[in-house]
Amino acid sequence: MSGNGAWNRVFEWGWLPLFLLVTTVALLTRPLMPVDETRYLGVAWEMWQSGSWVVPLLNGEPYSHKPPLLFWLIHAGWAVFGVNDITPRLVAPAFALGSLFLIRAVARRLFPTRPVIASLAPWILAGTIYWLGFATMTMFDQLVVFFVLLGIFGLLELGQGRRRGWLWLFLGTALGVLAKGPFALIYLVPPTVVAPWWAGVGVSWRWFFQAGAVGFLGSCMALGWALWAAQLGGPAYAEAILWGQMAGRAVDAFDHAQPIYYYVWMLPLLFLPWTLILPGLLRRVWKGRGSGQSVWPDPRFARLMLAWVLVPFGLLSLASGKLPHYLLPVIPALSLATAALLAGLVESPQALRSRAVAVFWCVTGLVLIVLPWSTSHGLTAMLPGGVSAVGVALLLGGAWLWVARRGPRQVVAVALATGVGMVLLHLALLPLRPAFDFKSFATRVGELQHGGHPIAFVGKYRDEYNFYGRLSQPVVELGGEAAAKEFCSASPDGIVVRRLRGAVPPEALVSTQFRSKHDVALPCSALASSNRTEAP
Q1: Where does the pLDDT of residue 296 fall: very low under 50, low under 70, confident under 90, or very high at 90 and above?
Q2: Does this model's pTM top 0.85?
Q3: CB under 8 Å to 22, separation ≥6 — which residues?
Q4: Which of 172, 199, 230, 454 is in Cβ range 3.0-4.6 Å of 147 for a Cys bridge?
Q5: 174 and 241 inside one domain
Q6: Is residue 122 one of the residues assigned to a domain?
Q7: Whether residue 13 is found in the same domain as residue 114
Q8: Which run of H or E residues covers position 61?
Q9: Are 41 and 83 contacting, i.e. CB atoms less than 8 angstroms apart?
Q10: Is there a contact between 149 and 331 (Cβ–Cβ < 8 Å)?
Q11: Which of 109, 118, 125 shows the shortest CA–CA distance to 19?
Q12: Cβ 71 vs Cβ 44: under 8 Å
């Protein structure tokens, strides 16, 4: 009995130490990743040091691509602990952890008579490779995931007659829009509109009026910021945040344009490793339908999935601009659906067919074994032969997963394989850190700027150095050789930063590797003697 009690505790809470282990290892081994994380920390720093609390700034100009909630949360940490690079990196993991608790709460309200689903849901979510990898990225998407879950939770609370659900729906809408603009509404509006058909709130004009009012008031909270920022940021910035960003990405993306079918093949990759067991699981459910062992398909839950998954999937597929993490709020919905499908197996002696997952980790291990001995790319040359030992560990883990046959323990085993696999991958790729870590280089660039040397960058500058270098002045963007010569004529004591292929010029004051290239800081006095080729 004691052993069974210990297993029950692991089943209920084991996902928590697993998540904490993976996020801790990730934060300790991975630097702020260029260009997204370094850019967002750079924006937060520029707002902080300039006192621009309403209008985000990127290299001295209003930054219209994102609302300010993430930057404000970073500022809150700095207000308490001073400017540092630790508290900003805890924001996304904190919201990811909150999502694990929220998905369990949502499952309890969706399936009050099947508590096993609430126990499974955090394991499924924490055992999803892409979601777990994104949990430590200082970006906006984990915030949106949390607020979408909060809105869904609020709708379920309202369906059970708890009026506090209006507060959760309001906060999910208001803070979701402040986190990533109208994008959050793509995931919140459809479940709210069809709530009478899945949440049990009842069909009435009063419901639609109240829900519309709460959504409108929540959106007005973000709109209030947008109008204030538009007034402060000028006409071009106003046009960008009030119309250009959303319309431009939807109709004719200025970046990340992809074909309409892009997400059709991307979504299965985002839900690995569970995608590999779903075909067999669905076949079992179909063969055993009517046996009473599974809650799927349940009409109410199916309607929620249609509103939460298929409608946003279709809208985002029609939009011109696409990125994989735009689908991140779908992952909790798929996790709930998978938990519902798995419930019958967990409550029965049947085994989960997870050998495809075992093969996946074995193949990953084989790739890692071979990778250090490959010289096809400059980055692989940085991997020592010892990395192959990590590949062997992944191979053995896949073999262990192959023989794990009991239902509930096998679900946990698949999630553990994800967590341990992610830890091993972070450790294996640790030798690549110098190719992505701008800290020492940016610090030196900052010292040069503070010493009175104007800084220019040849190419498109994305705030890569602003936070680590604590830059106090914008970096001058140069379009090419002619612009560089003109800059140096006007500022003979200036520093020109270039991203180059090949060897570092001997006249470079400081350099750092960036992927397979090098960022080098050259004094204007040496510019004429440097005839290296810029990296595209």
Answers
A1: low
A2: yes
A3: 132, 135, 419, 422, 423
A4: 172
A5: yes
A6: yes
A7: no
A8: strand 61-62
A9: no
A10: no
A11: 125
A12: yes
